[in-house]
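Notebook, bench 3.
Goal today: get a predicted structure for Peptidase from Bdellovibrio bacteriovorus so we can plan the truncation constructs. The sequence was checked against the plasmid map this morning, with no discrepancies at the termini. Length recorded as 289 residues. Pasting the sequence as submitted so the record is complete.
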Amino acid sequence: MKEAKTRTRAKKKPSTSSEKELILVDEAAGLIFENEKDLFGYFQSAIDKLEEEYIALRSAEDFTDEEQIEREHYLESTLDEPDEVWMDDKTFEEFAIYHFIKSFEEGNEAFKYVAVAYVSSEDEYPSFVFIHFPSKDSRVWQNYQRGEMVYDKTFEEVSAGSVEGDAMGEGDPLAMGLYQAMLKVRGEKDIPQEKFKDYADLREETIESADEIWRKNDLDGNILVSFIREFPDHETTKDLIYIAVTQEDEDSNVHSLLFSFPTTDKTLADRYRQGENLQAEEVSQESAH
């Protein structure tokens, strides 16, 4: 591992007793250093342990040292705009560390960039980076998806469309993935996501008095049941359709509500008219929430 794999992003301020600038890693926690030698000395044992862990995981098929250096510019966006952040308070007793992870693509090659950092308790800023690297090996980056997930970009993106009581609002991966897929094919002139909550009162009526109910199995074996109801006389929106997507438990036939949404796009609605067309009385309309 090269020394460049450790970075300080600490803030600096003038010392009152001298002309030197102090390095502030976490002022509230007393992590204030007069120089980088003291700073790196304080964290050296942690750096060594994290480097040893990474070296043990790294495979010959992953990026070489030279290829890693060519991708070091991805560090800043990984820290500033991560896809995931995991808080790990088990690796060291003295302080928690945070694993910042972000996906990138270069041509046909996909990889993730990982940065293990100390985060300032005052402003929640990654002020010291112990180790950082790109990896094509899922076994490597999955090792850093440990502890408590404190930030999930996907959840942030979909949370605006969540309605109280649905699985998506709880961070359910299946619900979030299906919802994101829906957003990608949604028409530009359709109802904007930030207005979905204005139609939330239609969800119960859609499930209780659906015009159509469709059941299908996805590629992973999940049983998805979609409730569809048209609202032709809606007071504000012409050609309104409301759709609630649920997951059916194979043993109990009970449905867990994944997510729901309004649309004026008949083509989008047709995507949920797949599989077996059911009659309303065949369906157990219970929510898991």
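Residues 182 and 268 are 8 Å apart (CA to CA). Confidence is low (pLDDT under 50) at residues 284-289.
Flagging this for group meeting.
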